[in-house]
Amino acid sequence: MIDLGLAKLALIGVVALVVIGPEKLPKVARMAGSLYGRAQRYINQVKSEVSREIELDELRKMQQEVQSAAQDIGQSIAQDLAQTQRELQSAWHGDEVAVPEPSRLAQKAKNFRRKKLARSSAIPAWYKQQHGTKMRVTSGAARVAKHRPGRKSAHSFF
């Protein structure tokens, strides 16, 4: 950033007064101010569009993850259902029943919980505060006491 002190601004003002003249200086100053305001509005607009695009991209990624997780769960349910159906048919016909292995399902659940924890804990605190995500958990009794009509809160500063 340019370091402009009071002395430098005064020097710029004197040079502008000499070069432009006293009758045109207010018009030039107004025009410069309006151009500066337009530039700031344009920059803020570009920043907001970029942040919107980033958020939209994150939402798309999250949607793809949820869809893939749903497909995986659907496939695993279909496989388990087919295996159970085969076991029931083999038991109906008198064949030996193979004991299902629950460790594969438990491992999938453990991996899913680990991935979910990594996704949810990777969000910075400033982002959660900015977008309304709860930062602290309050008990049900505390919420009721906070919103109870006719009661004054215990944290009054008056």
UniProtKB/TrEMBL annotation:
<comment type="function">
    <text>Part of the twin-arginine translocation (Tat) system that transports large folded proteins containing a characteristic twin-arginine motif in their signal peptide across membranes. Together with TatC, TatB is part of a receptor directly interacting with Tat signal peptides. TatB may form an oligomeric binding site that transiently accommodates folded Tat precursor proteins before their translocation.</text>
</comment>
<comment type="subunit">
    <text>The Tat system comprises two distinct complexes: a TatABC complex, containing multiple copies of TatA, TatB and TatC subunits, and a separate TatA complex, containing only TatA subunits. Substrates initially bind to the TatABC complex, which probably triggers association of the separate TatA complex to form the active translocon.</text>
</comment>
<dbReference type="InterPro" id="IPR003369">
    <property type="entry name" value="TatA/B/E"/>
</dbReference>
<keyword id="KW-0812">Transmembrane</keyword>
<protein>
    <recommendedName>
        <fullName>Sec-independent protein translocase protein TatB</fullName>
    </recommendedName>
</protein>
<keyword id="KW-1003">Cell membrane</keyword>
<keyword id="KW-0813">Transport</keyword>
<keyword id="KW-0653">Protein transport</keyword>
<dbReference type="InterPro" id="IPR018448">
    <property type="entry name" value="TatB"/>
</dbReference>
<keyword id="KW-0811">Translocation</keyword>
<dbReference type="Pfam" id="PF02416">
    <property type="entry name" value="TatA_B_E"/>
</dbReference>
<keyword id="KW-0472">Membrane</keyword>
<keyword id="KW-0997">Cell inner membrane</keyword>
<keyword id="KW-1133">Transmembrane helix</keyword>
<comment type="similarity">
    <text>Belongs to the TatB family.</text>
</comment>
